[in-house]
C-alpha cells in the first residue's frame, strides 16, 4: 500500500475529536485511527491494479552528443474504471531530461503519451530498464505501486561538427580531381587510356611502342588511384583524457576520424580504424562500403580513455598484421615529450618502413596565450615560464617525429579534421600511396 499525504490531512481534520472525550482521549485516538485505517484500506481496495496499466517506452536508436532527442512513454488504461496514474524513470543525469516523472488521468481504454527532450552531454551506452508505475485510489488517500522492467539501450554518439566541411571537400574533389566521373589528365598512378599527343603533354608520358605501331605520337593518361587505404589509429591512453577548451582531446580525434572516413569512402577509397591503449580495444577492417562511417562510429562511440600509458609497439604490430598493404596511417595522439620519446618514437620505425605515417594532435591555445602574455605577478611569471617551456618541448617533439619519417599535423581546436582531410587529399592527388 502506498499512503498519500492527503491521508495525513484527513487524520488531522479528525483530531479535534480527541477533545470530545476529554477524560478518555485514548478512546478517541483509537477511534480516529480505526477510521483512518478503514478509509485507507477502502481506497486501496478500490485502486486500479498497476498491472492494468500498459506502459511502453520509445527511444531513438542513437543520439548525437549535444543534439536534442525525444524519449516518449505511452500509457494505456486497460481497466473498466478511470484512474489517476503516475510513473517515473531514473534517467542518467548527463541526459539532461526535462521530464523524469508524470501523473495522468486516464479514462477506461484510453491511451496517453508523455514526451521529454534529452540533450546528452556524455557519449556512450545508457541502459534503460526500471520504471515505477503507481495508481491512486479514487479517494486520493492510498495507492498501489509496481516496478516494471523494460530493457532498452540509448546510444549517444560522438560529435561530428566537421560533417559539413567533409561534404564540401567531397564535392570539390569530385569536380577538381574527377574522382566520380571526369578523368585526370597526366596525374594519378592508375592507367586510364592511350590518346594522341598534345602540346601540353609531358614527354615522359609518351608510349613509344604505341607510337611506333600507329605512326603518330601516342601518350598514356592516368587517373587518380581509387583503391587507396587510410587507417585511423586512435590512442586511447591517459594523455587523450586531457581537455583543450573544455573538450577532451579524444573527442577532437573522433571528429577527425569520422571526417576522414567520410571523405575517403565517398571518394572511392578504403578507410579503417584501430583503437588502443594498453591493448587493442577496437578494430574496423578497411572498406569503401557506404556504411563504413557507421561501423567506425559504432566501434569507438563508447570508448573512454584508459588512465595508463599506451603500448605503441603492440598496437603498431597489430596494425601491421591487420593492414598489410601500403597505407596512410593517421595516429591520433598527444605530443607529450616524455611519452613520445619513451614509447612512440622507438615503435615508429615499425610503420614508417612500409606506410605513410601522419601524427595528429590538438594543441592548447591557452598555453600559447600564457607564453605570449607579459607577466605582472610572481604567479603569472611562473605560468609564463612553464608555458614557454611546454611550447619548446612540443616543437622539439614535433622535430623528432619528423626526423623519424612521420608527417605531423598539430592543429588548434576545431581545425584538426579539416587539416587532416587536406593532408589526405594532398596524398591522394600526388599519388604518394
Walk me through the topology.
Elements: E1 2-3, H1 5-14, H2 25-46, E2 53-58, E3 62-64, E4 69-77, E5 83-89, E6 101-106, E7 111-118, E8 124-136, E9 142-157, H3 163-176, E10 190-196, H4 208-214, E11 218-223, E12 229-235, E13 243-244, E14 247-248, H5 249-266, E15 270-276, E16 280-287, H6 292-300, H7 312-322, E17 328-332, H8 337-347, H9 349-352, E18 356-362, H10 365-372, H11 378-403, E19 407-411, H12 416-430
Helix pairs in contact: 1-2, 3-5, 3-12, 5-6, 5-12, 8-11, 10-11
Portion in helices: 25-40%
Rg (CA only): 33 Å
Major beta sheet, specifics?
Answer: 6 strands, mixed
Q: What is the class of the largest domain in the CATH system?
A: Alpha Beta
CATH superfamily of the largest domain: von Willebrand factor, type A domain
Distance between the termini: 73 Å
Low-confidence stretches: 179-187
Summed up, the domain count is 3
Helices and strands: which structural class?
alpha/beta
> In CATH terms, what is the fold-level topology of the largest domain?
Rossmann fold
**Shape estimate:** elongated
**Mean pLDDT level:** 86
Tally of DSSP helical segments: 12
Find the count of extended strands (DSSP E, 2+ residues): 19
Q: At CATH's second level, what is the architecture of the largest domain?
A: 3-Layer(aba) Sandwich
The percent range for strand residues is 25-35%
Amino acid at each position: 500500500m502506498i499512503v498519500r499525504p492527503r491521508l495525513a490531512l484527513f487524520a488531522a481534520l479528525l483530531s479535534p475529536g480527541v477533545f470530545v472525550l476529554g477524560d478518555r482521549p485514548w478512546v478517541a485516538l483509537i477511534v480516529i485511527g480505526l477510521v483512518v485505517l478503514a478509509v485507507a484500506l477502502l481506497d486501496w481496495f478500490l485502486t486500479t491494479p498497476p498491472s492494468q496499466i500498459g506502459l511502453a517506452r520509445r527511444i531513438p536508436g542513437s543520439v548525437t552528443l549535444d543534439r536534442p532527442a525525444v524519449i516518449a512513454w505511452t500509457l494505456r488504461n486497460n481497466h473498466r474504471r478511470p484512474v489517476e496514474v503516475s510513473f517515473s524513470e531514473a534517467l542518467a543525469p548527463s541526459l539532461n531530461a526535462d521530464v523524469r516523472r508524470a501523473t495522468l488521468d486516464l479514462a477506461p481504454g484510453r491511451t496517453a503519451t508523455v514526451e521529454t527532450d534529452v540533450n546528452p552531454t556524455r557519449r556512450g551506452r545508457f541502459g534503460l530498464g526500471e520504471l515505477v508505475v503507481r495508481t491512486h485510489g479514487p479517494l486520493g488517500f492510498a495507492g498501489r505501486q509496481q516496478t516494471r522492467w523494460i530493457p532498452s539501450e540509448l546510444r549517444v554518439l560522438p560529435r561530428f561538427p566537421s560533417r559539413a566541411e567533409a561534404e564540401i571537400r567531397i564535392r570539390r574533389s569530385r569536380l577538381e580531381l574527377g574522382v566520380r566521373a571526369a578523368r585526370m589528365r597526366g596525374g594519378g598512378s592508375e592507367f586510364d587510356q592511350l590518346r594522341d599527343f598534345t602540346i601540353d603533354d609531358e614527354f615522359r608520358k609518351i608510349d613509344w611502342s604505341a607510337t611506333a605501331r600507329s605512326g603518330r605520337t601516342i601518350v598514356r593518361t592516368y587517373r587518380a588511384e581509387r583503391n587507396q587505404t587510410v587507417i585511423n589509429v586512435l590512442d586511447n591512453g591517459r594523455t587523450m583524457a586531457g581537455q583543450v577548451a573544455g573538450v577532451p582531446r579524444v573527442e577532437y580525434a573522433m571528429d577527425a576520424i569520422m571526417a576522414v572516413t567520410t571523405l575517403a569512402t565517398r571518394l572511392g577509397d578504403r578507410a579503417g580504424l584501430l583503437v588502443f591503449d594498453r591493448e587493442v580495444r577496437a578494430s574496423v577492417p578497411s572498406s569503401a562500403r557506404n556504411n563504413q562511417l557507421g561501423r567506425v562510429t559504432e566501434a569507438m562511440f563508447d570508448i573512454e580513455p584508459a588512465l595508463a600509458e599506451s603500448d605503441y609497439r603492440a598496437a603498431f604490430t597489430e596494425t601491421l598484421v591487420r593492414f598489410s598493404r601500403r597505407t596512410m596511417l593517421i595516429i591520433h595522439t598527444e605530443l607529450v615529450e616524455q611519452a613520445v620519446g619513451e614509447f612512440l618514437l622507438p615503435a615508429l620505425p615499425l610503420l614508417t618502413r612500409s606506410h605513410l605515417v601522419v601524427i595528429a594532435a590538438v594543441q592548447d591555445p591557452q598555453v600559447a596565450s600564457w607564453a605570449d602574455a607579459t607577466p605582472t605577478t610572481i604567479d603569472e611569471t611562473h605560468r609564463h615560464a612553464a608555458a614557454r617551456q611546454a611550447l619548446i618541448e612540443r616543437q622539439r617533439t614535433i622535430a623528432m617525429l619528423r626526423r623519424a619519417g612521420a608527417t605531423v599535423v598539430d592543429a588548434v581546436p576545431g581545425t584538426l579534421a579539416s587539416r587532416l582531410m587536406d593532408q589526405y587529399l594532398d596524398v591522394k592527388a600526388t599519388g604518394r600511396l
